[in-house]
Amino acid sequence: MSFFDYLSIFIYFVEGIKVTTTISNIGASSATVINHYRFCKEVCTWVARSTMKPIGGPGCTIELDETFVKRKYGRGKQTWWEKHKFKIFGGVCRENKEIFVLVLPNLTKEAIWPMILEYCLPGSTIYTDGAQIYKNMTKKEGKDFGFNFRHHSSVNHSIGEYSKKDDETGETVSTNLIEGVWRWLKELFSTGHGCDVEDLKLAVYWYVYKRKFLTPLTSPGERLRVFLDHLKLYYPGDPNQVEPPRFYTPWTYEIEGQTYNV
What we know:
Elements: H1 3-14, H2 19-26, H3 30-51, E1 61-69, H4 80-83, E2 86-93, E3 99-104, H5 109-119, E4 125-129, H6 140-145, E5 151-155, E6 164-165, E7 172-173, H7 176-189, H8 197-214, H9 220-234, E8 252-255, E9 258-261
Parallel strand pairs: 1-4, 4-5
Antiparallel strand pairs: 1-2, 2-3, 6-7, 8-9
């Protein structure tokens, strides 16, 4: 392929053009375009994870929620992740719409609480559903763990309660914002983004990357420039570079004798 073809793939990817349209427009093989789109998602995943930071703080409200994503097809040998469905946990700050999203091996308190401590700033007001994993975050158990949140309230989805007025803050308690993120991700993953956990991670962090770096920009040229700048960071052209640098330390889980990095 020519330099123009490569650049065209980057442009189409950044603008969210479907793979089939890109194949038709540049005349490349489906394998070539799919592989280049995956590479672009790897760049976005690296940047999204490397720049993911804590959200909220004093005067801010964070919605936390967890969800499951089933793979579309059940073919082939399943990994531990696939047998147990894909677990996603995340939060969104109501005031500035900043988010964090993580793909986890399970959604137990032992897995969730360290992520809350890592990505939710002290002084935040926390709104969740009524899941047991969120109990006692502002009580002695949570304070002993290291939480220092202003307030926590929840809605009970099991009885059809999806919003209510918080008597302490006067705000509406709900998880509508973060559930909107889940709806988008599930739709994305169900329309051809693969069926293993690595494909899920690429789809999740591509969404995080696009929301943070591309959506605020109005010009296609600006969006392309930002992506190419990140591509240069990912592969700066150093012949001695074996693999891209990592700017974050992944969480590691030991499950059934296997190690999983988040």
